[in-house]
Known about the structure:
Elements: E1 7-10, E2 16-20, E3 31-33, H1 43-49, E4 54-59, E5 64-68, H2 74-91, H3 113-133, E6 136-144, E7 147-154, H4 162-177, E8 183-187
Parallel strand pairs: 7-8
Antiparallel strand pairs: 1-2, 2-5, 3-4, 4-5, 6-7
Amino acid sequence: MLHMFIQTESTPNPATLKFLPGQAVLGAGTADFPSADGADASPLAKRLFEVAGVTGVFLGGDFVTVTKDDGADWDHVKPAVLGAILAHYQSGDPVMAGEGGASGHAAFEGEDEEIVGQIKELLDSRVRPAVAQDGGDITFHGFERGVVYLHMQGACAGCPSSTLTLKMGIENLLRHYIPEVTEVRPVAV
């Protein structure tokens, strides 16, 4: 019998909770399941989507972020999510089926390769660790004519404060260190 104490933390997104099972979830990288469509890649995500009201699952190194629909109440969803996480770890199933996870920055080649390298380094060292604390991730998607395109995942996707975080936090940080950056915009993938 597996005994787990799964902690929960709120995130800046009221529709999203962060669950900490007290052990590695992915270990390295992240896996984003904004809908049940791709959940077959993860037995854990698939199990979580079976819970009524769950609309999104994001897997991090040591946490699981779950998003519910607006009509669902956390008082009903949270116990079922805790049960699904516990059942998954008791089953012995892997978190990811086959090779999966490790979603990260988009590849980039071209004349701005050096600038993009600096952008990715700042995201990895300054932005992503802070965003992971809130149960999400932000990855590089593209760079064109001074505009950095970022993909928001987990608790960050659809969070009311994410636009403010992008504009006031990340955009100011990147513009401070990299003069070629003029703006930051989110992308939907």
